[in-house]
Design brief:
By secondary structure, this protein is mainly α. The N terminus is likely disordered. It is 82% helix and 0% strand.
Length: 656
């Protein structure tokens, strides 16, 4: 009978396996064997028949644990299944029993106490007790290190030790202890590499190494070390592909393959290689489609597919293929809507629906389909309000709601509903303020506050209230300074500070505080020069330098300092010309050149003819390419008049 079970499992024949296990259970019970034997059969049924369905597995594992009584592993499996089903108090009871039993049996089974502590850490992670989870994982690692020091290189102990370090990394990442997470993952990887080098690496160990490498890549990516992250992801993908060659139909490996491909695709996006990113993400989606067809009732696999479709849609949008992006997002939305209908109380599925709706709203906005965008954003907002009403202590739901309000507020700005937009963004700001009060060290939440303050400043400026705009911008500037002090190596935070300085400078200039404006622009320029020097190939940094130089030139013109104004415009113009030469078909780059050249003409009356000739030439090129914007036709006319009459007509403020 046992042979028939093994044969059915190896053949992946679910129906035959079910029958074989039922017969085995009846045989064991009829034979008068002990409770432990029946418990073992029940455990096998749960493990082999429902690896992705804890609601089916949990009753079997609970019966198994009750029968086995003194087997810590049965209680651990029962507890883990209860965590998966959301029965957290029952899970705690099972894991407490596991700890008691494991303590009594620790001399005979040294792994059991550590496994029970790891499972307890998993439960604490689910209940958001991150410090408690980290403590439990560190206890497990200490136990395993002690066991490893007294063992003759037992591979099982070393594999568990590597898993313990991975769990420590998981908790550290959620606690924003990224370097500690990287250190823990590096130790896990070193252990697993050592096992492979000693010939102790079976398929499970190789898979563990692939997963640890993937997590290490995630941690390095968070720190901005994309090169190290890419290496880790690529090695992980290679290991998984090697494993699939040996077991091509193993669903768990196929799922791992899809995840590794998605990570490689994400790195390609970060490098700006959208073609490679699309290939990787589409391959990932193909695998996920296959898994959904194979296991149509497994919600986690359908969710994986929806996430993959969102990534494919993101790449299409980045390439400008908006219709293809919308198709991907809508297919993903249909999947998560189905999951939400099947489990209407599952907050995770509802959130997934809102994520897809947000993406659809974004792409509809890019397509200038305002009704479609607004409908998606409004449904997203309604669902997120409902999630917050259900549980307003959930920080993630609060942040999601603030983001949805921001989207609606931005649409109101575009529609000219500035008073409503101001109210909407203030509501978002209030939610973000609550989050920052909860976790003052959370960089992402503080950054959200800064973004909302910038929007509020923008709206106040358009409402002809520059004083209120300056106040909002200066609050945002204070936050940007504080964040950079927390992480002085972050290029993103440095750029945020430079942008805030420009906004403050703009308002000071508007209010006639020329010295204050120049001070802000010059500080922003110093930051941007440093960023450009750290990444000479980064075109965005160069463009930022050019923008700051133009702002300084504007102030110098207002101060009637023509020499310094011209120096600033000339340097900016040199950068603008270089960037335009790299992509002649990019209309925005050509437009940047003529705007800057116009400003230089205002400061350089001695070479006015050459300046106006270049402005006219650039505008004529845009017209030939059918890229000349409607209002810019008038600028071509004025520039031509300036060239003919050698007079100077300043640019209006909106182009400054």
């Amino acid at each position: 009978m046992l042979r028939s079970v093994v044969a059915a499992f190896n053949a992946a024949d679910h129906e035959v396996l079910t029958v074989a296990l039922s017969r085995l259970e009846a045989l064991v019970a009829g034979d008068g064997r002990g409770a432990r034997d029946i418990a073992a059969v029940l455990g096998a049924q749960a493990t082999l028949l429902s690896p992705f369905n804890p609601r089916v597995a949990e009753p079997l594992l609970a019966r198994s644990a009750a029968l086995a009584r003194s087997d810590a592993w049965s209680w651990i499996d029962c507890g883990l299944a209860r965590i998966e089903t959301g029965a957290l108090s029952e899970a705690a009871s099972a894991l407490e029993m596991a700890r008691v039993v494991a303590r009594d049996a620790s001399s005979r089974r040294p792994l059991a106490p550590a496994a029970a502590s790891i499972a307890l850490g998993d439960l604490r992670m689910v209940t958001a007790d991150l410090e408690g989870a980290l403590d439990a994982y560190e206890v497990a690692v200490r136990l395993l290190r002690r066991a490893a020091s007294g063992s003759d290189r037992d591979p099982e102990i070393y594999a568990a030790l590597a898993s313990g370090f991975e769990r420590i990394a998981d908790a550290c990442q959620q606690l924003d202890l990224n370097e500690k997470a990287c250190d823990a993952l590096a130790q896990a990887i070193a252990i697993l590499r050592g096992m492979r080098a000693r010939g102790e690496a079976g398929a499970d160990t190789a898979r563990d190494l692939a997963m640890a490498l993937m997590k290490f890549g995630d941690a390095r990516s968070v720190r901005g070390d994309l090169q190290e992250a890419s290496r880790a992801y690529s090695e992980s993908l290679t290991i998984i592909r090697d494993l699939i060659c040996d077991e091509p139909d193993r669903s768990g490996l196929l799922r791992d393959h899809s995840v590794a491909l998605a990570r490689v695709g994400d790195m390609a996006i970060a490098r700006g290689d959208t073609a490679a990113a699309l290939t990787a993400h589409e391959c990932s989606v193909t695998i996920r489609r296959e898994l959904v067809l194979r296991y149509p009732d497994e919600a986690c696999l359908a969710r994986d597919l929806s996430i993959g479709l969102n990534r494919v849609g993101d790449v299409h949008v980045a390439q400008g293929a908006l219709a293809a992006g919308l198709d991907a997002f809508e297919e993903g939305l249909a999947l998560v809507r189905g999951l939400s209908r099947r489990a209407p109380q599952n907050a995770g599925f509802i959130r997934d629906v809102t994520v897809s709706l947000e993406r659809i709203g974004d792409v509809q906005s890019l397509r200038r389909h305002r009704p479609g965008a607004l409908a998606a954003y409004r449904e997203c907002l309604r669902l997120r309000r409902a999630l917050v009403e259900r549980d307003d202590s959930h920080s993630g739901h609060l942040r999601d709601l603030a983001l949805a309000l921001g989207k609606i507020g931005d649409m109101q700005i575009l529609d000219g509903d500035l008073i409503d937009a101001l109210s909407t963004h203030y509501e978002a700001l209030a939610l973000q303020g609550r989050l920052v009060e909860r976790e003052p060290e959370n960089v992402g939440w503080a950054r959200d506050v800064s973004v909302s303050l910038d929007r509020i400043g923008d709206i106040n400026y358009r409402l002809s209230n520059p004083g209120a705009a300056l106040d909002a911008y200066e609050q945002g500037l204070g936050i940007a300074r504080g964040l950079l002090e927390m992480d002085a190596q972050s290029a993103m935070l440095a750029r945020d500070l430079a942008i805030s300085l420009n906004r403050v400078g703009d308002m000071r200039l508007e209010l006639g505080n020329l010295a204050g404006a120049l001070e802000a622009f010059e500080e922003g320029l110093r930051i941007r020069r440093d960023l450009a020097a750290s990444d000479p190939d980064g075109e965005d940094w160069l463009r930022d330098v050019a923008v700051s130089l133009e702002r300084i030139g504007d102030v110098c013109l207002a101060l009637e300092d023509g020499r310094d104004a011209l120096d600033a415009f000339e340097e900016s113009l040199e950068i603008r010309r270089e960037l335009a030469s790299r992509q002649p078909e990019d209309a925005q780059r050509s437009r940047d050149v003529w705007v800057c050249c116009w400003k230089a003409a205002e400061a350089d009356t001695a070479n006015a003819r050459a300046r106006w000739a270049e402005v006219v030439g650039r505008l004529e090129e845009l017209r030939a390419l059918q890229e000349l914007r409607g209002p810019d036709i008038r600028f071509l006319e004025v520039a031509s008049e300036n060239l003919a009459g050698l007079r100077v007509t300043p640019l209006p403020p909106r182009l400054r």
